[in-house]
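User:
I study polymers; will you set down one protein's sequence and backbone structure tokens?

Assistant:
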Amino acid sequence: MKKSPTIFIVPTGIGCDIGGFAGDALPTAKLLASASGCLITHPNVMNGAALSEKDSNIFYVEGYSLDRFARGEIGLKRVKQQKIGIIFDSSIEHEILIRHLQVADACVATLGINVHSYVLTKKPLSIVIDSDTSKISGGLIENPDALIEAGETLIENGVTAIAIVAKFPDDSGSEDTNSYREGKGVDPISGVEAVISHLISKSLKVPCAHAPALTPLELNEKLDPRAASEEIGYTFLPSVLIGLSNSPDLIELPNKNELITIHPNQLESIVVPNGALGGESVLACVERGLNIISVKNQNTLKVTNQFLNFPNFIEVNNYLEAAGIILSIKQGINLNSIQRPLKKIQEISFTD
């Protein structure tokens, strides 16, 4: 079967209409995966808090590792299952910790996921949410060494993928949080979530993803459907464990000993929101001459091709059109042949 390996990115914390909420880009990922036959995307796209879904055509790769794949530094190896370990922030309240442990047990009992063990950090991670006025979510970890040490302990005990659950400040009544829940703002915690998972990916080079530990929110009758999956459980951990359960191994390149399922040289395209063209994966794909499929997906960034003038740039109005473009590329159809007006072929003159 023909495949057209494609990266699908919806950057975290920039308020995208599609993909800026709780797994609301998952249907789009399934569409693009069906069109391409091989889609590489990141947890922000797939994680719907209590909801998620597996798809054999989708490779679940944390954002920092996805950038490395786009740059040609690693390959991806399909596995039947990962042995998952969970890092819990030691500042998580006892009741909330028990809720998360029950979720892990449920994923073993009901979904057959291999959740192997967990560890509590020696010190609280002390997450700080950046609430500046830029409308781009951000933040930091005050004790990053505690996170890395906990991850090293899990790996030493045979774990092959890591879920992180960090305690987040309670801002359930804040204007930013309520605006996000009602579909009018940026997810205030998503930026620092990326910082957490990037740190584990960079330091330990294993599949990973993050779920925040939050105090249950009060009922909001104005809730936007895109944020609704965050309201139906006590934790966001289920989608992370589902995604990590068979996320691909990360194979450092060059490597002649490992059988790699997807090599970065097989990549053909990247799909990214218009306005968010400055990311590392996009720039790596531009440098490698791949197709840049830019989709109109409203967000807070303004980095467009008007300023960049990328080659092989294709702008479309929605992800339905993007799927059609990917199908055309997969089938080897000249995109110009299905657009009108249709230009005649050009004559090339001999030069002295």
